[in-house]
Structures are given as structure tokens and as C-alpha cells.
Task: inverse folding
């Protein structure tokens, strides 16, 4: 993400706003991944690798790993 506008001046307001959106997408992706892993466990399945998710609109990718003890 670029901190500068087209005039090459620092534009932290836009950078911070877009960074917040990125963090929100990552958090939703992590929560979704944990939900999928929990559902797999409840159905008697074991997740044997990381879960790789991609947000369709932004293309942001999230890698969700199973936590130890789950």
C-alpha cells in the first residue's frame, strides 16, 4: 500500500483508511478459517494443513493455521 498520492506527497489519511480495511478483511478471514477448522473437528475431520483463503473483491490472501491444542 502506497503512503504517497499521485503528486508524491505523503497522504497518511488515505493510507490509514485503506490499512484499516485490510486489517478488517484479514480479521474476518481468520475468523472464517477458525470456524471452518472447528466445523471440521466437530464433523470428525482433522485439518492436516493450513487453510488458504482469498478475498474475492480485493484479492487479499489469508493463511489460517490450526492452533495447537485444537
Result:
Amino acid at each position: 500500500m502506497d503512503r504517497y498520492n499521485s503528486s508524491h506527497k505523503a497522504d497518511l489519511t488515505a493510507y490509514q483508511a485503506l490499512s484499516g480495511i485490510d486489517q478488517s478483511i484479514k480479521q474476518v478471514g481468520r475468523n472464517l478459517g477458525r470456524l471452518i477448522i472447528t466445523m471440521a473437528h466437530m464433523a470428525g475431520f482433522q485439518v492436516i494443513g493450513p487453510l488458504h483463503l482469498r478475498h474475492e473483491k480485493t484479492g487479499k490472501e489469508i493463511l489460517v493455521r490450526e492452533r495447537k491444542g485444537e
User: Anything to note?
Assistant: The chain has one helix and two strands. The chain has a mean pLDDT of 82. The beta strands are 51-54, 61-64. The radius of gyration is 17 Å.
